[in-house]
Design a protein that fits this description.
two-stranded parallel ribbon, single chain
């Protein structure tokens, strides 16, 4: 209805992608239809819609942009779904998952010239948002965007292709293995290779805040040869501990 009665473009922007992926648009009955609609909007194909109440709609020249931020556990539901992959939805997206900077971004005094850079940035965005969009001469409500000429360098294309390979491939790895890998990465950064269970669930990765979860991740690492269990009552941090492991060099 927005594309028919309002502007010929729309945007799906959210910092909480779980609301979108977990909502009615992506439930078991609608997710294929929703994915196909996104594909149609990305391709620029005309939208055909027939409803008893609103009648028939034929909407050429419509476009939709999307910027959806997902937590890794939500993104895994997309990457691990063969339907989304097979229908081509993921191939139409530029997907990236940079390393988390949580806990590392401390306050710094603004540098000289920061205000000028931000002003230029905001002005550029405002110019793009206010720029008159191009429509077809015979259909003023249908977009007719000019073709983009690509530079011979393929740096960005290579970057996003590698990200897709990395993330899509990672979705086939179980959550238990990924959690164990994060524990291993954290453990390898600790000054003492010998740790007991309480240290892990108190100070380790956030998803291991319970003894059961921490024990399960440690078991995976031990079975894979990354850890060796030490005898009960091994003294760590000045006290004998029941569950103690040492990182294998």
């Amino acid at each position: 209805m927005h594309l028919a009665q309002g502007r010929p473009m729309a945007g799906v922007f959210t910092a909480e992608g779980g609301l979108l992926i977990g909502g009615a648009a992506f439930n078991d009955e609608a997710r294929m239809r929703t994915a196909a609609l996104f594909n149609t909007l990305w391709d620029g194909d005309p939208i055909r819609r027939l409803r008893v109440g609103t009648g028939e709609k034929f909407l050429p020249g419509r476009r939709c942009s999307a910027h959806v931020m997902l937590q890794p556990v939500v993104a895994d539901t997309l990457f691990g779904d063969t339907m989304f992959d097979g229908i081509g939805l993921l191939a139409r997206m530029l997907i990236v998952a940079p390393n988390s900077t949580a806990g590392t971004r401390f306050y710094q005094e603004p540098g000289i010239g920061t205000d000028t850079v931000l002003t230029d940035y905001n002005n550029r965005l405002a110019l793009l948002l206010k720029r008159q969009f191009v429509t077809r001469p015979d259909m003023p409500d249908a977009l007719d965007p000019p073709s983009m000429r690509l530079h011979p360098a393929v740096t960005l294309a290579t970057y996003y292709a590698n990200e897709m390979l990395r993330l899509n491939g990672g979705a086939t790895i179980s959550r238990e293995l990924r959690t164990a890998q994060r524990l291993l990465n954290w453990w390898q950064g600790q000054p003492n290779p010998v740790l007991h269970l309480a240290t892990i669930y108190q100070f380790g990765p956030s998803e291991l805040r319970e003894a059961k979860a921490a024990r399960a991740a440690v078991t995976v690492l031990a079975e894979s040869g990354w850890l060796e269990r030490l005898p009960p009552s091994t003294v760590v941090d000045g006290k004998p501990r029941k569950e103690v492991w040492r990182l294998v060099p």
